[in-house]
Amino acid sequence: MDKSDISxxxxxxxxxxxxxxxxxxxxxxxxxxxxxDGSCYIEMGGNKVIAAVYGPRExxxxxxxxxxxxxxxxxxxxxxxxxxxxxxxGPDRRSYELSKVSREALEPVIMxxxxxxxxxxxxxxxxxxxxxxxxxxxxxxxxxxxxAGIPMKSMIxxxxxxxVADTIVLDPMKEEDNFGQADLPxxxxxxxxxxxxxxxxxxxxxxxxxxxxMAMKGARDIYEMQRAALVEKYGKIEAxxxxxxxxx
Amino acid sequence: MDRKVVVPGDLxxxxxxxxxxxxxxxxKCVYSLxxxxxxxxxxxNVIPLAGKYIPAPGDNVIGTVKDITFSNWxxxxxxxxxxxxxxxxxxxxxxxxxxxKHLRIGSSIMTKVKDVDPTMxxxxxxxxxxxxKIMTGQVIExxxxxxxxxxxxxxxxxxxxxxxxxxxxxxxxxxxxWINGGAEDTDLALKTIHLIEKEAHTNGLTDRIVAFLKSExxxxx
Lengths: 248, 221
Fold this sequence. Notes:
The structure holds two protein chains of two kinds. Chain A is an alpha+beta fold.
């Protein structure tokens, strides 16, 4: 397909009917895995991502262990069926990079000094990809870390902004990502400290500022959803005990 | 009692003096470190809903011997860190070669954390009358975050439970609990502990448990 063949906007709305500054629908579920210490499933538009947290636990292999703090390991992995053309399974250049930047996006808020000589493992599995899987992965991982009871200075939320047809848009979907002019994912604390920023394509300084502002607003909205999901899980625990009381 | 569900990073107070467990201070304000329940008293404590047991000096714990070295038993204490029980911390003087005669791999012990150093080397001791090897009864495991509730304020819950169910109970801070008593009494104790674990975060729990025990006993007789 040629770039010029696509029109990204119809009657001022995007291909999927969103406004330029609108997120895709998001669904977050906490504690979906029984074996993990903490877990989270997230859907951001067409993205379906599951995150699992194990630890703090003993470090294997031993030589990776740090005497004064916990290490954090983050594995981003795409399922072979997550994209249109079958992805060759296993780690590749791209997933190594995403694992590294995602780990570095989360590590600053985790209180690693509380758990010397241990490891906190984060596994992120992309079941279905639709542009912006790293942001979905980070959002899920932050919720899973909280669910695992790991002390953190704050949550982390992540969102991307992009540029298509010379317009800055929030949370680009696959078509916009593939044929757009720029993609700018960020991760940040609700307080506004940015822990991840990447850019693909080109933006002028003005466009860049506009895109960062937009992505930060998106991340703040996502933070509210992460928070709501965690609070809701507690509500479920409470509801189940009311049932128990009713049975007595 | 004022309680609220909080997530990491939530602002709890603007008075830095009220910072308690599970919180941190930034710019003279108190924030939550954990996902859990914030308890507003003089100090604000955040009680986690999940997490691993981290040993602290003075904790009673139940462990299982998983290895024996020249002068230490290495004990699994349901934590990311193993416990070390030195031969000199055994109540009687024993020889290095005879260590496995007293505690074998797989033996369960009621023990106490003597010291934890900054690298999280955990030293255990058996030098107390109530500590020792587990010979009878059974050990169950609950989440260690529920243990404070099982013990109650100043031990109110656990002493009430011991008296009511007529069992010997040893609660480890790591979430392992030893129960010893008659078959029926043990069953009732198990049932009650699971109920406490399930409802750990609700108010007025001790009164409800008393009522529960009364009705269970009434059903039995």
